């Protein structure tokens, strides 16, 4: 009986991602309540479910840990049920919003449950059932906050087909969040932003969106500089000292690690620039094609999986050659295609070239700085030529930039830790869920 209870009726024993199957039990409770009760009663049912499943989790946690022989056994999924029910508390459920809320909460809760934003991972250290439960409740709370913003910003626009005249503050917060988290995690910021802007009925070529993109690019570049402030500062000091230490000769490039890294960065930017010059117009056409973006998500997920399985990262900076730099730069150029993740492709290319994980992450974001600066320059030119400064929604732009910076700091640190622990495949699961979901949604609602 205890096995049945902790596994949510046996869902925890299903193969592949038992936590997702457990979350689906929460989806069923939410949909059943939403279809048969008022919004307030539905919220009370979900809150009751949170309490019931939490009590069961704490009561049976010690037994589960002892029986399965580990701290957080995979068959135990009632913690996911409780976390999901937290994620859907007080979300809109009128009409079709019930299904939007259920799907939105499921996907976002699963993301937060996998990446475990602070303080979720710390709560995992609690004893027995509390340690199993607490991180899921934190993930559910994060998911609820994001879903509230998403549902209340997106749904009114979905109900009104007319284009939005002004970027609203909730929309800016949502776009800033997506920019910050997807710019650094290998899930493609361009693909997520293109889809979100389409759902919000915002025109990517409008003056306000060009300025917003400009501001959020500056914010994400600032996040890179903050996270890598120490290694970048050490690299700069080494560059300044290199001529005095090695002299102005061929030995300078061979012996100075910082100058060698700068040279490789320059080389990597060449294929990136060539891809942009030759293919940028063609690639921009895909921003309005959800099926192409979904296919790119699936490709990114496949590349991450191949890099984790086939990559043999053993080479450091001294064995990091010109060929590897050009391949990584080409990967960055291909990421201009919406749905292909820049960080994902460059890190995967580095791993497949045999570069050590630490250097793969550093080099990926080192060559990102010139790419972001180039994007900044291009956006700045468009903004100057098209934008009336007084007509811009400055509060929304400022909020979106601050959110992109704060979330970017967190996302970049998460990626570096995930890369170090060889867990990039987690992002494949996400991309392979979202890609087919986009295809199905497009076929049903086009």
SSE layout and pairings?
Elements: H1 2-6, H2 18-36, H3 39-68, H4 78-87, H5 97-115, H6 120-123, H7 128-159, H8 169-184, H9 189-199, H10 207-227, H11 229-246, H12 250-255, H13 257-284, H14 290-310, H15 322-334, H16 342-352, H17 357-386, H18 394-420, H19 425-445
Helix pairs in contact: 2-3, 2-4, 2-5, 3-4, 3-7, 4-5, 4-7, 5-7, 5-19, 7-8, 8-9, 8-10, 8-18, 10-17, 10-18, 13-15, 13-17, 14-16, 14-19, 15-16, 16-17
DSSP helical segment count:
19
How many distinct folded domains? 2
Strand residue content? under 5%
User: Percent range for helical residues?
Assistant: over 70%
The helix/strand series, from N terminus to C terminus, equals: HHHHHHHHHHHHHHHHHHH
Radius of gyration: 23 Å
Integer average pLDDT: 84
- The general outline is globular
Distance between the termini: 46 Å
| Unreliable residue stretches | none
Q: What structural category characterises the helix and strand content?
A: mainly alpha
The total count of strands amounts to 0
Profile the largest sheet: none
Characterize this entry briefly.
With 446 residues, the protein is mostly helical. The chain has helices at 2-6, 18-36, 39-68, 78-87, 97-115, 120-123, 128-159, 169-184, 189-199, 207-227, 229-246, 250-255, 257-284, 290-310, 322-334, 342-352, 357-386, 394-420, 425-445.
């Amino acid at each position: 009986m205890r096995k049945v209870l902790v596994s949510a009726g046996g869902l925890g024993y299903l193969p592949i991602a038992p936590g997702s199957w457990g979350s689906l039990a929460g989806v069923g409770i939410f949909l059943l309540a939403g279809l048969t009760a008022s919004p307030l009663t539905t919220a009370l049912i979900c809150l009751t479910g949170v309490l019931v499943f939490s009590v069961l989790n704490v009561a049976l946690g010690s037994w589960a840990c002892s029986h399965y022989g580990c701290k957080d056994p995979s068959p135990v999924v009632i913690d996911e049920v409780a976390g999901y029910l937290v994620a859907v508390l007080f979300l809109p459920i009128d009409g079709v919003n019930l299904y939007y809320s259920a799907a939105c909460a499921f996907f976002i809760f699963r993301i937060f449950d996998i990446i475990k934003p602070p303080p979720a991972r710390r709560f995992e250290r609690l004893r027995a059932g509390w340690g199993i439960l607490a991180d899921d409740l934190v993930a559910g709370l994060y998911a609820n906050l994001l879903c509230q913003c998403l549902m209340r910003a997106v749904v009114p626009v979905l109900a009104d087909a007319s284009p939005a005249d002004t970027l609203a503050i909730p929309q800016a917060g949502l776009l800033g969040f997506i920019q910050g988290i997807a710019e650094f995690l290998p899930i493609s910021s361009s693909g997520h932003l293109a889809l979100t802007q389409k759902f919000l009925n915002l025109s990517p070529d409008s003056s306000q969106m060009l300025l917003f993109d400009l501001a959020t690019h500056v914010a994400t570049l600032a996040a890179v500089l903050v996270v890598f402030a120490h290694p970048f500062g050490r690299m700069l000091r080494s560059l300044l000292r290199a001529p005095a230490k090695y002299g102005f000769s061929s030995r300078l490039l061979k012996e100075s690690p910082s100058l060698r890294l700068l040279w490789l960065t320059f080389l990597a930017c060449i294929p990136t620039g060539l891809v942009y010059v030759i293919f940028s117009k063609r690639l921009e056409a895909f921003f309005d094609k959800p099926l192409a973006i979904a296919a790119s998500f699936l490709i990114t997920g496949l590349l991450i999986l191949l890099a984790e399985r086939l990559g043999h990262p053993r080479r450091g900076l001294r064995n990091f050659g010109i060929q590897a730099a050009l391949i990584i730069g080409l990967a960055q150029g291909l990421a201009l295609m919406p749905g292909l993740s820049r960080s994902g492709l460059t890190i995967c290319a580095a791993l497949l070239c045999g570069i050590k994980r630490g250097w793969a992450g550093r080099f990926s974001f080192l060559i990102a700085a010139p790419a972001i600066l180039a994007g900044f320059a291009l956006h700045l030119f468009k903004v100057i030529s098209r934008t009336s400064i007084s007509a811009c929604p400055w509060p929304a732009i400022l909020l979106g930039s601050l959110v992109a910076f704060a979330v970017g700091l967190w996302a970049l640190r998460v990626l570096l830790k995930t890369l170090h622990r060889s867990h990039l495949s987690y992002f494949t699961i996400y991309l392979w869920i979202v890609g087919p979901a986009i295809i199905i949604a497009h076929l049903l609602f086009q």
